[in-house]
Amino acid sequence: QVQLVESGGGLVQTGGSLRxxxxxxxxxxxxxxxGWFRQAPGKEREFLAAISRSRGIAYYTNSMKGRFTIxxxxxxxxxxxxxxxxxxxxxxxxxxxxxxxxxxxxDQPSWYRYWGxxxxxxxxx
Length: 125
Description:
Distance between the termini: 40 Å
Strand content: over 45%
Order of helices and strands: EEEEEEEEEEE
Number of strands: 11
Helix content: under 10%
Oligomer: single chain
Mean pLDDT: 93
Number of helices: 0
Structural class: mainly beta
Radius of gyration: 14 Å
Low-confidence stretches: none
């Protein structure tokens, strides 16, 4: 089993920044794909970014490129999401997710086996 715990969410003003963290514990060896998603009230879960341990590269949904940056610290089993230039449209619950392998479905929630409990991000003017 793998446990994921997100942190770093909170209230931020429009134009501000936040860095979310996702700490993994348990049987993390071989956990290749790590991703970030978000879900706003009344909307579907949305892919933001994913990073592959084996490939050492990151992928983003087009609308987030340049504003969000995903990174991972393999030694500490932690994944980060740096978010800049936040607007009220970024208000949502943010989730990290993990999968044991990588595939072309990295942007699909169904690909990920493990999920954190989510952290709320609220952007206010």
